[in-house]
Amino acid sequence: QVQLKESGGGLVQAGDSLRLSCAASGRTTSSLVMGWFRQAPGKERTLLASLRWNGAIPYYADSVKGRFTISRGNAQKTIILQMNSLQSEDTAIYYCAARPSGRDEYEYWGQGLQVTVSS
């Protein structure tokens, strides 16, 4: 089992930046793939960015490419999502998730963080 705990959500104004953090514990391995998702009201949950612990090239959805950056944090087993130039359409619940590299589905999920961007 892998446990995930997110931190860093909140209320910001359009154009601001926000940094989300996800701390992983439990059976974490270097082949684990970490991802950040979001779900806006009335919409499906979508993958924004992903990164493997062992340093593969990160993936970004087109909607956040150039504005969001996923990276490993300074603390062990921490994944960061740096979000810049936030807009009202970025308002959503943000989730950290993890999956074994050989599987397509994310198996482990954090509880989610509310991010609200006021215009």
Written overview of the protein:
There is one protein chain. Strands 2, 4, 5, 6, 9, 10 and 11 form a seven-stranded mixed beta sheet that branches. The chain has a four-stranded antiparallel beta sheet with strand order 1-3-8-7, with no helix packed on it. With 119 residues, the chain is mostly beta strands. The model has no long low-confidence stretch (mean pLDDT 94). Helix content is 0%, strand content 54%. The protein has strands spanning 2-7, 10-13, 18-26, 32-39, 46-52, 59-60, 68-72, 78-83, 92-100, 108-109, 113-118.
Please write out the topology.
Elements: E1 2-7, E2 10-13, E3 18-26, E4 32-39, E5 46-52, E6 59-60, E7 68-72, E8 78-83, E9 92-100, E10 108-109, E11 113-118
Parallel strand pairs: 2-11
Antiparallel strand pairs: 1-3, 3-8, 4-5, 4-9, 5-6, 7-8, 9-10, 9-11
